[in-house]
Amino acid sequence: MNLILATDNSGGPEIFSSLQGEGLSAGVPCTFVRLSRCNLACVWCDTAYTWRFEGDARPHRDGIAFNRRVNQVTLSVAETAAAIDRHTPRRLVITGGEPLLQGAALAELAASLRGYAIEVETNGTVAPHRRFDGYVEHYTVSPKLAHSGNARELALDPVRLSAWAAEPRAWFKFVIARPADVEEVLAIQARFAIAPNRIYLMPEGTGSAALRERTSWLADLCLRHGFRLSDRLHIHLYGDTRGT
Ligand SMILES: Nc1nc2[nH]cc(C(=O)O)c2c(=O)[nH]1
Ligand code: SF4
Ligand SMILES: [Mg+2]
């Protein structure tokens, strides 16, 4: 089977090693693979080159339409595994876009890798492929709030959210732009009975100054509600750049 990946600045597949910048394994050296395509369209998405191709009229704050041919590359599972293997870290972060849209190929990929701890970054709207799920150490589930611009029915499916809440390997990470966004997190937390200790609040932002400003008030909100705080370490270290 094949996987459709995003491209890096050289036009090759976006497979790279970096420190995990967010969530549970922040600071840990990881190998990343970024898959193309997403079923949502967040106005502040920092990887719009995975989905906002020419002809897509859904709004994005940068207004850029990406050329599909330049920003997607198709690799076989074997080619993807070989490219992953050329990197040192044996913790693999599968991200996107929405990687679970390619679950069947990910099951083949995971079966062909040996000795990896696998984590997945997902928007929480797609059920994990049954066979792939057996290989996953943990999921970082990032449900999208109203400020993402997605229709609520697309972004917050109650059946899916209940399933993630019941999944002990799932950690939740909410992108927060304004203090009022946390009200939505509290409603989701209560409705699906998610322990606050499983929830990260992370500032929205693609620059250090914006992240710092938002972190300054997010810290208080985390302390008040028992949530965890996530930074975006890679943005401070490398800026908003592909392959980092
Ligand atoms: N270093 C680094 N950490 C990350 N954690 C989640 C990322 C993502 O784009 O999903 C990401 C990323 O793109 N880079
Ligand atoms: S769900 Fe993630 S990849 Fe998809 S549009 Fe939103 S931020 Fe971008
Ligand atoms: Mg990212």
Automatic annotation (TrEMBL):
Cofactor binding note of this UniProt entry: Binds 1 S-adenosyl-L-methionine per subunit.
Protein name: 7-carboxy-7-deazaguanine synthase
Species name: Tsuneonella aeria
Domain of life: Bacteria
Record-stated family: Belongs to the radical SAM superfamily. 7-carboxy-7-deazaguanine synthase family.
Function: Catalyzes the complex heterocyclic radical-mediated conversion of 6-carboxy-5,6,7,8-tetrahydropterin (CPH4) to 7-carboxy-7-deazaguanine (CDG), a step common to the biosynthetic pathways of all 7-deazapurine-containing compounds.
Cofactor entry: S-adenosyl-L-methionine; [4Fe-4S] cluster; Mg(2+)
Gene3D superfamilies, per database record: Aldolase class I
